[in-house]
C-alpha cells in the first residue's frame, strides 16, 4: 500500500479558519484513567516493597529475569567499554556534542547561576545563595528510537550546575516482552534485548555516576522513593511515554521534576526563499518521532506551500519511518497560508511551539515579534536537528503550548536558591517598626514582639 501525507491546508482568510486551526492544535494532556490507576499501583508497590517490586515489574514488563537489582546496574567499565568499541566517527560526534552543550551551559551558569549579595545603606546584607542539587535522576527513554542525545542534554547541565551524583535509568526490554504497565512496549532502544552501545558511550562522555536498566513507572518510583539498591534522588528529568509522564506527575512534591513532555512539535515560519525540500525534511524531522507529533508550516506564499507539499510527496517514500511520518502529518500537520509574515508571527505566539524555525532571508527582522517558543532557530541553514544534537542549547523543551510560561531545561533546573539576610543593628532599627506594624495588623503578636525586642 502506498503512503501519502497531506497536511491540512488552511488559509487565514477562510471563514472557517479559526475553528479548523483550533481543532488541529488540540491535544489533550490528560492521561488515560486506566494508566493513572495502574501507575498509582506501581508507585505504591515500589514505595512499599522497594527492590522486590522493581524486580517483579522488570520481569513482567521488560522480560528481565534477574535475582537482584544489582544485576540491573551498569558499571563505569560498561560505559568505557561501549565508548572504546564505537567507530571513531561516533566517538568524535558524541564528544563534540557534549563539549558544545557544556560550553553553552557554562555560559548560562555565568549569566544566571551564581550567588549574589549587596549591602543596604545601614549595613544589612541581602542576597541569594545558589547551590546545586545533591543527586538527580535522568530517565533515558527507549520508545521508538535510542536517545544518546537526550542523555547528554540532561546530564551535562547537571554537571555544570555542580550536581555530584547523576543516576540514569533506561529500559532494556528483551525481545518479545509486552510492557503494558511499565515501560510501555517493546523498546526500540533494545529491541533485541541488548544494551545500546551509543547510549552507554554517551553515559561515559556525559559523566553519569550510576545507571540501572529499569524503565517505566517503576523506574520513576525507585528514583523518587529510593530502594535498597537504587538511591533516592532530589529531582527527575528526562522524557518518557504515558506511564513515565503519569508517574512523574504523581511523584512531584516528593521530588522535583523538569516538565511533563507532550508530543514533539515543529513550527516553520517561511518567506518562500528556502528550498522546499529543506522545509519538507524539517517537517519530517519531528513527524518521525511518533504519530502524535505536530509539524506546521506558516507562509504568505501559496505557491511555496504547493512546492513544499510536492516535496513531501516526493521525499516521503524514501523515509525509513514513512508510515509514522504520514500518520503524523495527516492527523496533526498543517500548511497554513497567512496574509503576511507579521500575521504568521502572531499565530506562532498563539501556538507557542516547542521548536520554531524562522526560515527567512531576514530572520532577525522577525525574531523580535516572537515571544513564545521553546527554541528559536534563525535562518534557512539552522535546521532543528542541529539543535537536537550538537548546537549547544538544550533540546529538552516545553511542549503543548507550555512555552508560554516554561523554559528549556538548563543549569537552573539543577540548582536551588536560598535567600540571604543579615540585618545589622542599625538595619534592625529601620526594619523593626515596619515589621511590627504589619505583624500587629495581621494579629501575629509574637512576630511583632520579636522585631521590637531588637529596637534600642
Task: Describe it.
This protein is an alpha/beta fold and 456 residues long. The chain folds into three domains: 8-29 and 262-391, Rossmann fold (3-Layer(aba) Sandwich), CATH 3.40.50; 33-257, Rossmann fold; 423-452, no CATH class. The chain contains 17 helices and 15 strands. It has helices at residues 17-25, 33-49, 51-62, 76-85, 88-112, 148-161, 197-206, 216-225, 242-251, 276-287, 302-315, 322-332, 341-351, 363-366, 384-389, 425-442, 445-452, and strands spanning 8-11, 73-74, 116-119, 125-132, 135-139, 165-169, 210-212, 235-237, 256-257, 265-270, 294-299, 334-337, 355-359, 375-378, 415-422. The strands form three sheets. The chain has a six-stranded parallel sheet, with helices on both faces. It is globular, with a radius of gyration of 25 Å. Residues 179-193 have low confidence and may be disordered.
CATH fold category name of the largest domain: Rossmann fold
Unreliable sequence segments = 179-193
Gross geometry: globular
Number of domains: 3
Q: Outline the biggest β-sheet.
A: 6 strands, parallel
Structural class determined from secondary elements: alpha/beta
CATH architecture of the largest domain: 3-Layer(aba) Sandwich
Please give the CATH class of the largest domain: Alpha Beta
Q: Distance between termini?
A: 89 Å
The counted number of beta strands is 15
